Amino acid sequence: MSTTAQAPQAPSGPPVNPAGLPTAYEHGKRLTDPGSAVDPILVEIVQGTLASVEMEVETSISRTSRSPMIRDAHDFRAGIHDRQLRKLTGRSYSALVHPIARDFPLEEMREGDVFFHNDVYESEGGIGHLPDLCVTVPVFHDGAVVAFVQAFGHHDDIGGAVPGSMPSNATSVHEEGLSVPPIKLWDAGVPNKAALRIMTRNSRMPDSLAADLDAECSACLMGARRLSDLFARYGRDSVEAAFDAILDSTTETYRREILSKIPAGTYVWEDYAEHDGVDEPQLHTQRITLTKVDDAPADPETNFRGGPRLIVDFTGTAPQAKGPINHCGDYVGGNFLKKWLAPILRNLADTPERMAELDVNEGIVPLIEMRFPEKGTLLTPIYPAPTNARTFVILRLLGVLAGVVAKAVDGQMPADQETIRYTGVYGKDRDGNDYLMREVLGGGSGGRYYADGEDTIHVVPDSRNLPTEFTESRFPFIVERLGLAVDSGGAGRYRGGLGYEKHIRMLEDAHFMSIADRSILACWGVKGGKAGMPFHVTIDVGGPDERVVEALADAEPVKAGQVIRIRTTGGGGWGDPLDRPLDEVERDLRWGKVSLEGARTAYGVVASGEKDVVSIDVEASEDLRARMREERSDEPFFDRGPGYAQLAPDGATASEFDWM
User: Fold this and answer.
1) Is the dihedral of CA 154, 158, 161, 164 positive or negative?
2) 207-249: per-residue pLDDT in tens?
3) How far is CA 4 from CA 69, 312, 384, in A?
4) Which ranges of 66-123 does DSSP label H, i.e. alpha helix?
5) CA–CA gap between residue 212 and residue 196 (Å, rounded)
6) Which of 12, 111, 194, 632 is 20 to 30 Å from the Cα of 47, by its Cα?
7) What residues have CB less than 8 Å from 300, skipping those under 6 apart?
8) Residue among 246, 223, 293 at smallest CA distance from 39
9) For residues 446 and 495, what is the distance between their CA atoms, to the nearest angstrom?
């Protein structure tokens, strides 16, 4: 039976959160009375200023940081929050201010203060693994805290058992690097040199870590000054009224345009992580029971005025893993997870153009209630369970929510999308210096009910792979190929997006590392669409030592001259591939996205020729498609690909929840 997450009560004193820390700080409330008058033109000005400041902070970080992961891959985010810790901006997700307000009273903060943390279990759910370092700066007006500017990003190395601080076989968070609870990193403009020295001393890349932190602190301080100017120009009451209006608008927009598309009722679906780095591959279940209620009662504590609401129940999620795929989600009522998952709901917008206009800020929080199982699951791990590969869970939840909503709306949601995977090499360069090259390679997004999926995208907004020109000039290898992985997108009326194929030839002996999933379980297809191709790495391609590498690897040896071939996941397909028009298959053949064999086996299209000159035999294709339809048996609503049967205890090809 599911239960709403409740903070356990301490023997005396205020309530505590799942980490045993106080939760009595004030957060999530309105700044003005409901219905307060606000100038709509000022709301537009304030909203534009917030977006501009957020972008300016991120631009400053990208231009002044040093590590490839921050500067070039752009694996960081900025966010702006009000004094009630509500996220005001919605261009991308960000961490939470809650742990700072919990440990440092707002009335004791001073201008020039900078707070820092990366402790997963003391972050109130806002930090997923230790390489994500978070910087928070308060904004002042007339001597009082009125807002916060925050940045967090994935840094190269924060210590731990392996370079990059993501040991794939960790069984404790203590193996994953230096864990820092909320501290004051700058005190009224004066950096805490002792704390900085401790952090850089624990890192294998101390210079880049120091430079990145300096860039983030300076950028957030700059952002705080910009916001102080906004308050000085228009006054605190007017600006805070605009803050409430911005969030109210989001709440009403999602209530009217998104929640209204989901029929009232209860729907269940689940998906899986395939391995945790310690135990043998198995189905690590993540289940969502989604209940849409049209007339939920008002709840003043969450600013919910009553009406339609979504209840997301994670009961049925598997026990916490021995390895590092756990995610701490059950904090502050799942506040972080609500904002993380809500972008999936935008797919219900009337048009793709409208979907792109919808931001996700704190305004969506009142519309979603989350219910967590007891402590000790993948989403409610118990300290010190490891978490460095928590992307296997938190990114899978995006797909689980998409799948369960698809069941509610007859498949009018995208098929499964790519998930983050970290790959890289490390060793010594020709000068004998240590190096670490790690990047986040994307894959294909899922086919949609109106269009194919996108090729080689990243689920992290604005992130990108490292430029070949940069990596070849800095690291001892050559990138011999970087292109699309042919046939990787799941077949469908609308094809899944393609993944990457990247060939790296090492010039010096090195070690390969990978933190990836979807190497067994592919991105699923929906409503007749087929699963995409899974993640795959081969070392010494075509050589005497050719071998397939596990998707979780810390130190796979690679000799000088050997080639590493990385193929990332393709997105799932949407709809029956035999309904895909012949001219679209022909276009895919000409563009090199589908092979001649793939066209025959997946789409029932008989073709000949080469890329730019392709000829389709229409009559033979129609005959082949007719035979393929006749030979079909009943198929589930979701196609998981052949990997599911490898891990399912009974060898089943589909879950009980995959049928409509």
Assistant:
1) positive
2) 999 999 999 999 999 999 999 999 999 999 999 999 999 999 9
3) 37, 10, 23
4) 68-71, 98-103
5) 12
6) 111
7) none
8) 246
9) 8
